[in-house]
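Lab manual, section 2.4: Encoding a predicted structure.

Procedure: take the sequence of the chain (445 residues), apply the prediction step described in section 2.3, and record the output as structure tokens. A sample record is shown.
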Amino acid sequence: MTNVLIIDDEEKLRALLKRIIALEGYKVTDTASLSNARHELENHSIDIVLCDVKLQDGNGVDFTKEVKGKYPNIEIILMTAFGNIPDGVQAIKNGAFDYIVKGNDNDKIIPLLSRAAEKVALQNKVSRLEKQLGKQYSFDVIIGNSPAILEAIQLARKVAPTEAAVLLTGETGTGKEVFAQAIHYNSPHSNFPFVALNCSAISKDILESELFGHKAGAFTGANKDKKGLVEEAKGGTLFLDEIGEMPLELQPKLLRLLENGTYIKVGDTKEQRANIRIIAATNRELENEIEEGHFRSDLFYRISVFSIKLPALHERGKDIPLIAQHFLEVYATKTNKNIKSIDKEAMDALKHNDWKGNIRELKNVIERAVIMEDSNAIQLSSLPLDIQHPKSDCHNATSFHLANVEKYHIQKVLLHTKGNKTEAARLLDIGLATLYRKIDEYNIK
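Recorded output:
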């Protein structure tokens, strides 16, 4: 319900307005003075203020500026018995939603309140989304207590408020884009776009056009001007993932952008300016790429003004339970499943996996396990076979027990047939009833 505050020193008019507005479904409070109005604003949630211009303890036009300074989402409609253009102009400048004349504009009040309420609702929605976005991309979403990840977070927090270029290094899947987003949303560029480009995902023939844009006629198929990602990121952050894959011939143009903030579109001769921050990431050892002639040393020194190495998941083993539980909660919610925990045997298997794909791999494993699991805790049998039976298990005598071998083989075939039991029975050369019995016997899911 929209809350309206009426401020007017004419008691009869206040009562009339309060009755009319309340009948339209608004919650209405009224007062005769600005001092009481300030108390109401401080202690109650007010959405719209309907205020007289001439009051015994002040002026509504000046009060508008005061209110909008403290409560920018509150909309104010000013009323006056003697309208004049200078007051009306100043009221709008001070942030009033509208300025009306009593008597002449009474029929406008309800439609005005409706439009003001729509604007308040939209502003509140935007504020909520901004808070959610800030939370989503804050450093708090980076999960872990290991020294290596805490050090990386500390460094990222320090560099975020600056304009320094940042280079994020580490294995694939360690969360480099998550760090890049956190740095952006905690920087002076946070109100502008965060634009990401994977340099390895685009062929070198069109990468320059994607990055800097092109003019119509620059090459075959360029029928009109095209904005590049540098222009799209105006005022914000450009995240260049896998920068080690950037073609050597394009690197000087990126260096120019970093050094003096200028670039030239493909097919153009006019220099453009760009006010953006660059964050780059790589899973390669760029020093080795420099020695092999694949990466420019001057570009490396420019992008690595501030370098942060993200640890691999096997380097922060004690964080695995925290991260796994987080993804469990995410995917249990998405799939509407009542899965609350991870069984000890399953967790031990997660802890002992080598996680070559790092956090990305763990995320995918937990998503799959949630889909497979029918109980309220993820069991070992819901994990992929290579995690259930790591290669090191071949040295364990129990893995040679006939029952273990048979169970493993049935699981492998079911995985191959994507759960199609009829096809699995055919491949195993056993009856469908026999397959169901063994699935039940071995508790295969």
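Check your result against the sample. The CA atoms of residues 167 and 301 lie 10 Å apart.
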